[in-house]
Amino acid sequence: MTLETARRCVDLLLSSETITTLDITGGAPELNPVFRFLVEEVRRERPDLEIIDRCNLTVLSEPEQEDLSEFLASHRVAVVASLPCYGEKNVNMQRGRGVFEKSIFGCTKLNAHGYGIDPALPFHLVYNPIGAFLPPEQGALEEQYKEELHREFGIRFNSLFTITNMPIKRFADFLHKRGELASYMELLVNSFNQGAVDGLMCRNTVSVGWDGRLFDCDFNQQLDIGLACPPPSSPTAPSYQHKSVFDVGSLQELEAEPIAVDSHCYGCTA
């Protein structure tokens, strides 16, 4: 993301009173040159705003990131980090050799700066399955994580979020090669939960790409599915439109627009 795009994002946050959260994600967002600019500007201009870093725990071991945990804590940035298991074997199998050790180091460093301990510094972990099945019950798994991580490493965190693997990109390719894509989609469709619809991210979130383009959710962004067009005037009219942060004066302008949906959306309602 360029500094120009980052500045425009800040301007939109300041002009959109209904926005209450800045959620920064994207693999390892902390390595983006504008990451700290975004955090500093938004915290100064909107001290009331919740700022979340979808943290890649391994980045805390990277050169020139030695002060990252201190930076996050000093700006009251909530941390949400993926840790697919509390055991070394499963994490390294899914993420690569050495990832578990670096992740544990990242957790202990965050704890050392008050994360998961100080109520003003929330620290949450995220679990997702490693295969074509739905995650287990969240509460029971959270208890297991807390018990194992504290006993083995002294790690403390606030909550565990379980999420369903989305049938897109690498995971979709993985399922296709194993001949499991159709059965997994059937599982998601049959597991549709009407009660989950009101809380879907696409209903209250705007996802901004690195180039400033706007999407209804992170998954639509990965699939390059832009904002939905109004009801088409003809069968050949485009289904999606690509707007960017430079095309809108306020994010409130998007509230009445339809949401772009596709089959992968069943992953959020399962």
List keywords for this structure.
single chain; 270 residues; alpha/beta; five-stranded parallel β-sheet; two-stranded antiparallel ribbon; 10 helices; 12% strand
Task: Describe the model.
With 270 residues, the chain is of the alpha/beta class. It is built from ten helices and nine strands. Strands 1-2-3-4-5 form a five-stranded parallel sheet. Strands 6-7 form a two-stranded antiparallel ribbon. Helix 3 (68-74) links the parallel strand 2 (50-55) and strand 3. Helix 1 packs parallel to helix 2.
* Strand order in space, largest sheet: 1-2-3-4-5
H/E element sequence = HEHEHEHHEHEHHEEHEEH
Q: Terminal Cα separation, in Å?
A: 33 Å
- Helix count, per DSSP? 10
Main β-sheet description: 5 strands, parallel
Number of strands: 9
